[in-house]
From TrEMBL:
It comes from Roseobacter ponti. Belongs to the MoeA family. Keywords: Magnesium, Metal-binding, Molybdenum, Molybdenum cofactor biosynthesis, Transferase. This is Molybdopterin molybdenumtransferase. It is an enzyme of class 2 (transferase). InterPro entries: MoaB/Mog-like_dom_sf, MoaB/Mog_dom, MoeA-like, MoeA_C_domain_IV, MoeA_C_domain_IV_sf, MoeA_linker/N, MoeA_linker/N_sf. GO terms for biological process: Mo-molybdopterin cofactor biosynthetic process. GO terms for molecular function: metal ion binding; molybdopterin molybdotransferase activity. Residues 173-310 form the MoaB/Mog domain.
Amino acid sequence: MISVAEALAQLFALVPEPETEEVALRDAAGRVLSRDVTAARTQPPFPASSMDGYALRRAEVEPDAMFKVIGEAAAGHRFDGTVGPGQCTRIFTGAPVPEGADFVVIQEDVTRRGDLITLGRDIGGKDNIRPAGGDFSAGDKVAAPRRLNPADIALLAAMNIARVPVAQAPSVAILATGDELVMPGETPGPDQIIASNTFGLAAQLAALGAQPRLLPIARDNEPSLRAALTLAGTADLIITIGGASVGDHDLVAGVAAGLGMEQSFYKVAMRPGKPLMAGRLGGVPMIGLPGNPVSALVCGTVFVAPFVRAMQGLPMEAARLAAAPLAVAMPGNGPREHYMRARLGEDGITPFDRQDSSLLTVLAGADALLVRPPHDPARVAGEMVCYIPI
Ligand SMILES: Nc1nc2c(c(=O)[nH]1)N[C@H]1C(S)=C(S)[C@@H](COP(=O)(O)OP(=O)(O)OC[C@H]3O[C@@H](n4cnc5c(N)ncnc54)[C@H](O)[C@@H]3O)O[C@H]1N2
Ligand code: MOO
């Protein structure tokens, strides 16, 4: 059995070179920017007022000073003249500051009668002007790789980038295996259950910017598995669920090997998730997840998510760890890295009492996987521990 870190390193060696495509800005949210993009314009393109008020000369600002209003500058409509001594323009937020003016007095600090304004007694030194290029300048870059969040999309829009180079969304074939499985909505026989991991994993993948494709459930016999694995061959990544352990009906490794799979590793010193397998089948990376529902989804977080991020050109990094104080004491850990389903609260992190890898109710109630290294000694409440937010 290899360590989680070693398994992840071997998995990253299977990551294919990401491919780029261009998409409309509206479709770029959540995708990974694949090339640096460069602003073709400056923002704001001119010194702009940040408030509604009057534009005038800073040197003339003093208590009770009077100015003549000679025009108006609004957003989208500049004032074409020049503001001279003793003059001002009405100005609104976002408007270009007129020639000659270098200060905006907010209207709350002004009394206006006809074309004349009188300043109040406490104007302050803030000019209320956003300099040209205060946000960004032509030539500034948004650097790749980067998963584009809503603020990034707004920034690209402001830079006038209508089409965005992004990594192609990896197509991921998900193959559930087992005679006991039926799809949600179907009527299970007396010995059957509903395929659940499949859907949890598809949801994880969709949230990572991949395109999950559910294959028909493969039955626990070689022809069915072989047919299903052959169907998966056009994907960028094949994920199988179940049939990974040592039982008589656990056939995935054997059938995949028969089809020419080059195995990178099988079995990882972790809990849950021990019978994890990975390799390449027909040139396509393949990850064989254990069937137990929590095992499959924990492996989804610890292995599939970093892999799919790397497939989109993001750095090859393990799931990010956070730290929190333990709310309760814990006994020592065994030889496998333990990903304990846990809850964060005001007094720290608490692992659930029940850690069986079949319990989806416990996983659904968890917001953290408390990570315990192999042979981690007993811990007392208050000690800092690492966790993966989920
Ligand atoms: N003698 C041993 N037995 C087992 C070992 C072992 O080391 N020695 N390892 C255990 C561990 S740990 C795990 S994890 C499981 C993994 O088993 P498989 O990957 O072969 O998975 P299955 O046997 O096919 O299924 C296990 C369990 O999960 C249910 N399942 C499977 N697929 C789905 C799905 N898509 N949705 C919902 N539930 C699913 C399945 O019905 C079984 O209950 O092996 C242990 N055994
Ligand atoms: O490793 Mo299994 O995944 O413990 O249930």
